[in-house]
Structures are given as structure tokens and as C-alpha cells.
Design goal:
The structure holds two protein chains of two kinds. Chain A is of the alpha/beta class. In chain A, 29% of the residues lie in helices and 27% in strands. In chain B, β13, α5 and β14 form a beta-alpha-beta unit. The termini of chain B are far apart. In chain B, strands 9-8-7-10-6-1-4-5-11 form a nine-stranded mixed sheet. A five-stranded parallel sheet of chain B has the order 14-13-15-16-17. A two-stranded antiparallel ribbon of chain B has the order 2-3. Classes of the chains: A alpha/beta, B alpha/beta. β12 of chain A pairs antiparallel with β9 of chain B. The complex binds flavin-adenine dinucleotide and adenosine monophosphate. The site of adenosine monophosphate has 22 residues of chain A, from α1, β4, α3 and β6.
């Protein structure tokens, strides 16, 4: 079984509020000295793929469209244990809207060879569109299941757990299939071993430009965007928290209950 | 002129809360631009849902019945909506940002060569332009996006927009749409549905939500949260740290990837208040935080707070609540 995992490199999304800065011109987050990571659910997707390989054999490939520095994300994935990685890096492509990104990734996947399984994160940690999995499925003409936490292979078919509002569904589908992954206790990303990190550092990461992929020009780049960001603002939160005090925790607990009663909340 | 197509859902003759919110948003957008609201009802057979939609703001109800539309199936829904949108030619298509919408919206957009925007908090006409507001960067920012061309498929974040106000006696046109759907479209099949047991109220409808996070350090303390929630006739929620650890079901997660809640009272126990969590609960009327760390960001959004160990606080708090309620 061959799995391609799409990974997005982003600025660490869990930084404290005071480290978050916007560039007023591009309206994107300023990197500053902040660390770059593989978007959270993509790490879970890598874990799902690696577990499938451990159970049934095969190969795991990581794919990223990003800045040239995103080779770091591919190297981290290699360090986690994926077999190979590809980077698409070409400045104008980074201005594409999600449909454009899906076109680029689909073309790259076709160049690698359409695998049995394509995984994406359920939602990215920066733009958070949660559209890439389903868009890729359409671009590749494949079936798709979103917000999946587990993938099993049974009788040559995929059996996946899809998280829905009030629980989950077990969904059956034939391969090849696209699934977008979210986290649960079965897909906690593994730590990389030092020797794998060292080996990854030495591996070559093929890097492609637009011209290598036979893209349809009209679908990619800023000009093709169907929606444009006009404005981004950071809502200011005024803290008005009333901290309940008291000698002991029990006293504070009582005060809280009384205060809520006073406010007619309970 | 902005015509807005809305996918409606309901039980019997009653539209879901999500649907009412979509219709509210659609009506306001259509009114601002002299457009029309076109409500789509999909099903295996005609449903009593149709009749009430005019009062909720629909100008047209597009009914499509087909045996394959018996319940949600992604491939069939995408095909059906592609055909309907092809005929109705709306500028904007609104779906709820739920498990159906997040699967269907991008796929539909791809087939219509349309734009797609998700988790929309507000949609507005601005002259001929249409603006969509949504959060980005895990809830740290609010972005305004402008449609460069139409159509645009948008999913609306539940519990963020005002629902449609009913106007009895309002009428419209009902149109039956014929669809060409083949069994061969169906590529995924639900083998089993497992609903998490809900004791008491559903999280998304609860007036009181008691949520726990990593600070609880295990599944056991959630029993105390359940006791408190039951006492206050509310529901239990959790941070992603707690659901990822497997302490509680994924469907309890509140936040960017989980549920959006806006109860009268939200009690966060052992939750730091990461923006991705806040994205799902800052609409709550009164927020209470219990946390050992006085600098935890949750205190920036809380109205009432206790700095301290939940182990010492909760039992007494529960006892006092029992006394008072
Ligand atoms: C793309 C993306 C999507 C995400 N979506 C979500 C989402 O939907 N929902 C969500 O919740 N998170 C989400 N997250 C994760 C989020 O960034 C945080 O990692 C998560 O919310 C942290 O959970 P927590 O507050 O329980 O844990 P922590 O941040 O570890 O906080 C634990 C808190 O407990 C306190 N504490 C410890 N011991 C005690 C005690 N004895 N008594 C009282 N307090 C104590 C600590 O002081 C601390 O503040 C997402 C992240 C990403 C990148
Ligand atoms: N530039 C990219 N390169 C590789 N994968 C991506 C890229 N953008 C999005 N993805 C994948 O799509 C998922 C969902 O992204 P989004 O639709 O932005 O929420 C991400 O978690 C990634 O798995």
C-alpha cells in the first residue's frame, strides 16, 4: 500500500498572543524568529500512514507546497519514518487560493503516481480552511471522507472512522481514496529517533517548480484567486476577570457559587 | 442582484437551528442586493419541511426527490447540488459548517469552478460585492474576504448568525427539480453509526457547559464535571488535549475543530485558553475559569475566575451549588 501525506509547513500556531504579529501589507502572519512546524493534524496523518505501513507494508511519501525552507518539513517527516518526500516550491504558486493549491498538489501526486491513499490534515493550523482533502479528491477524481481519525484495511477495502457531531461513523470505501485526518488517542504523532533524524538530513528531497508539473496557468497564482483577502484584524480582548479571593480554596469555591447566584447565572 | 441558494435540513416539518441561521443570513444578503433566496430540500420523498420555509424567508423552494437521497451520502449530495446549482445559477451557496457541509462545500465548489470559504461568521453585500468574514490563525484574527467572481460556496459557522425571523403568511414558489442520479455515483458507504451516549442536554444546545482540559490529568475527574453539569442541567465539554488523550469522546471537544458553544455559563476547568479553544466558546455569556496558573490566557476572556487547584475547589463548589439550586 502506498500513501501520500500532504503536509503544510506553518508558523507554530500555539504561540502566546503577544508573539503573534501581522504584516500589514501582505496581511499574513509575520514569521519573526518563530519556529516552523508541520501543521498539527498533518502530523497525525503521518502517524496514520506510518501505522498502516507497519501493519501491511508498503511506502509512505510526504508532499508539500511551500517556501524553499519547507524542505525542513519534509526532513522532519523523513525523520518520523516516511520513505520519501517531495517539495513543490515556486513563489507565484504560493499566492494561489485553495483550489489552486489543490491543482498543484494533484498534479504533483499524479507525477509521483496516484497512490492507494492520499491523506491531508482535517484542518490547517494557519488558514484553517479544512477544504484541501475534498478539493484534492475532486481534482484527482477520487472518493473522499473527511475528519477521519482511524484508517483500517479490511478485505482490500478501507474502513475509516469519521468523526461527526454526535459520535462517529464507520465508512467503507474502495482504494484509491482521499481522507482528511483529525487527532485521537490512536494517532498521536511519534517522536523521531536521533538516528532517523540524522539519516533524514542526508536524504535528497526532489524539488519541483510549476514548469515541472504541467499546470494549467489559469488555475494558479494570485490572479486565479476566487476570493481575495481585503482585511485582517486582530480583535482586542479587554480583560475584565473578577478573581475571587479567600483564605482557602474552599472559601473561594463558595464565593464563586454565591457570586454566580447573585448574577442569576445559576 | 445576489441570489442565494441554501441547503436546508430538518426533522419532519421543523428546520434545524443551523438551517434557520442559514436562511437568516441568506435573507439579509438577498434583501441588501434585491436578490432571491432559494431553499433546496433534498430527500427520498416529499417532506412537510417545505411548507414552512417561505415564512422563514425563502422565495423559492427547490424540491428534489430521489431514492438515492435517503439520508446524507457525500457523492450523491455533491452530484445533486451540482445539478441544482447549474439550473438555479445562484451567486452564493450557503451550507452549514457541519460534518455534511465541510465535505460537500469544497467538492461542490470544485465542480462549479467556484470559490469556497468556510466557517463564515458574517456575509454581507457591499454594493455589487459580497464580503465574507471568518476567523483565521486559529481564531487569532478576523479576515474579510471579497468574492472576485461568482458563484461562491460558503459554510456558515453554527451559532454565530441570527436565525431567520418567521413571517407568517409569506409565500413563494415551489419548484420540483428532476435529477439524474445513478447508483454508480456512490463510492463510500456508512457501515455503522455510533452515537456517543448523551446524558441530559446536547453540548451544542446546553445553557451550561462545564469543560475540562489537560489540567485534569486523566479521565477520572471528568466524573466530577459530569456531576456538576447534571446539577446545573448542562453538558460536559473538553479541550483537544483531553479528547486527544482519549479521556473523553471526540464529540465533546469545544473549539476550532470541535464544537462552537454559546451557553449562558461556561466553566473551564484546567484549560489554558489557547486561541483554538477560545474560538469555540467566547460567545458564552458568563465564562468562569478555574486554573492554577494566574497567567493562563483563559483569564483574559473569563468574567469570573479562581486561581487554584480544581481538586480543592470543585467538591466545595459542587456542594455549594447543590445548596443554592
Ligand atoms: C489546527 C489546530 C486546531 C485545534 N483545535 C482545537 C479545538 O478545537 N479545541 C481545543 O481545545 N484545542 C484545539 N487545539 C489545541 C490548542 O492549541 C491547545 O493545545 C489545547 O486547547 C490545550 O488544551 P488544554 O488547555 O486542556 O491544555 P494545556 O494548554 O496544557 O492547559 C492545561 C491547563 O491546566 C492548568 N492546570 C494544571 N493543573 C491544574 C489543576 N490541578 N487545577 C487547575 N488547573 C490546572 C494549567 O495551568 C494549564 O493552564 C487546536 C490546535 C491546532 C493547531
Ligand atoms: N501547501 C500545502 N502543501 C501540502 N499540503 C497542504 C498545503 N495546504 C494544505 N495542505 C493540506 O491540507 C490540509 C487542510 O488544509 P486547509 O484546507 O488549509 O485547512 C492541511 O492540513 C494539509 O494536509
Amino acid at each position: 500500500m502506498h500513501t501520500i501525506v500532504c503536509i503544510k509547513q506553518i508558523i507554530d500556531p500555539e504561540i502566546p498572543a503577544d508573539q503573534f504579529k501581522l504584516d500589514p501589507n501582505s496581511m499574513r502572519q509575520l514569521r519573526g524568529g518563530l519556529s516552523l512546524v508541520i501543521s498539527a493534524y498533518d502530523q497525525n496523518a503521518l502517524e496514520v500512514a506510518l501505522q498502516l505501513r507497519e501493519k501491511g507494508g508498503g511506502k509512505v511519501t510526504a508532499l508539500c507546497l511551500g517556501e524553499s525552507g519547507a524542505v525542513g518539513a519534509i526532513k522532519s517527516a523523513l525523520g518520523m519514518g516516511v520513505d520519501e518526500g517531495f517539495l513543490v516550491s515556486d513563489q507565484p504558486l504560493l499566492e494561489s487560493d485553495p483550489c489552486g493549491v489543490a491543482h498543484v498538489l494533484a498534479k504533483a501526486i499524479q507525477k509521483i503516481g496516484v497512490p492507494d491513499l492520499v491523506l491531508t490534515g482535517g484542518v490547517s493550523g494557519d488558514t484553517g480552511d479544512k477544504v484541501m482533502g475534498p478539493l484534492l479528491a475532486e481534482a484527482l477524481g477520487l472518493p473522499c471522507v473527511t475528519f477521519v481519525s482511524k484508517v483500517e484495511v479490511k478485505d482490500g477495502k478501507a474502513l475509516v472512522r469519521r468523526i461527526v457531531e454526535d459520535g462517529y461513523e464507520l465508512v467503507e470505501a474502495a482504494f484509491p481514496l482521499v481522507a482528511s485526518i483529525i487527532s485521537d488517542d490512536s494517532n498521536v504523532p511519534r517522536y523521531s529517533k536521533l538516528k532517523d533524524i540524522m539519516a533524514a538530513a542526508k536524504k535528497q528531497v526532489p524539488t519541483w517548480k510549476a514548469a515541472d508539473l504541467g499546470l494549467e496557468e489559469a488555475r494558479v497564482g494570485a490572479g486565479a484567486a476566487r476570493l481575495q483577502v481585503r482585511d485582517v484584524s486582530v480583535p482586542q480582548r479587554e480583560s475584565k476577570c473578577e478573581i475571587l479571593d479567600g483564605e482557602t480554596p474552599e472559601e473561594r469555591a463558595e464565593r464563586l457559587a454565591l457570586r454566580l447566584r447573585e448574577l442569576k447565572v445559576i | 442582484m445576489t441570489d442565494v441558494l441554501v441547503l436546508v435540513e430538518g426533522q419532519g416539518s421543523v428546520p434545524t437551528q443551523n438551517t434557520l441561521e442559514l436562511l437568516g443570513a441568506a435573507r439579509r444578503l438577498a434583501d441588501a442586493t434585491q436578490g432571491q433566496v432559494k431553499a433546496v430540500v433534498l430527500g427520498a420523498a416529499p417532506t412537510p419541511l417545505t411548507a414552512g420555509l417561505f415564512a422563514c424567508g425563502a422565495d423559492q423552494v427547490l424540491r428534489a426527490e430521489h431514492p438515492l437521497l435517503d439520508g446524507y451520502q457525500g457523492d450523491v449530495y455533491v452530484a445533486a447540488l451540482t445539478q441544482i446549482a447549474g439550473q438555479a445559477e445562484p451567486q452564493v451557496i450557503l451550507l452549514a459548517d457541519d460534518s455534511c457541509g465541510k465535505e460537500v462545500a469544497p467538492r461542490l465548489a470544485h465542480r462549479l469552478n467556484a470559490g469556497v470559504v468556510t466557517e463564515v461568521l458574517a456575509v454581507e453585500g457591499d454594493g455589487p460585492a459580497v464580503l465574507f468574514r471568518r476567523q483565521m490563525y486559529g481564531g487569532r484574527t478576523i479576515a474579510t474576504l471579497v468574492a472576485q467572481r461568482f458563484p461562491v460556496v460558503a459554510t456558515v459557522k453554527p451559532r454565530t448568525m441570527a436565525p431567520a425571523s418567521e413571517l407568517a403568511g409569506r409565500t413563494g414558489e415551489e419548484i420540483a427539480v428532476a435529477l439524474t442520479l445513478e447508483t454508480s455515483l456512490v463510492r463510500t458507504k456508512v457501515i455503522q453509526k455510533v452515537a456517543e451516549e448523551v446524558r441530559g442536554v446536547k453540548l451544542e444546545n446546553a445553557r451550561v457547559v462545564v469543560s475540562g482540559g489537560r489540567g485534569l490529568k486523566g479521565p477520572e475527574p471528568f466524573k466530577q464535571l459530569e456531576e456538576l453539569a447534571q446539577l446545573l442541567r448542562g453538558a460536559v465539554g473538553a479541550s483537544r488535549a483531553a479528547t486527544d488523550a482519549g479521556w473523553v469522546p471526540a464529540s465533546w471537544q469545544v473549539g476550532q475543530t470541535g464544537k462552537t458553544v454559546s451557553p449562558d455559563l461556561y466553566i473551564a476547568v484546567g484549560i489554558s485558553g489557547a486561541t483554538q479553544h477560545l474560538a469555540g466558546m467566547t460567545g458564552s455569556k458568563t465564562i468562569v475559569a478555574i486554573n492554577t496558573d494566574p497567567d493562563a490566557p483563559i483569564f483574559k476572556v473569563a468574567h469570573l475566575g479562581i486561581v487554584g487547584d480544581y481538586k480543592a475547589i470543585l467538591p466545595k463548589f459542587i456542594e455549594k451549588c447543590k445548596e443554592l439550586t
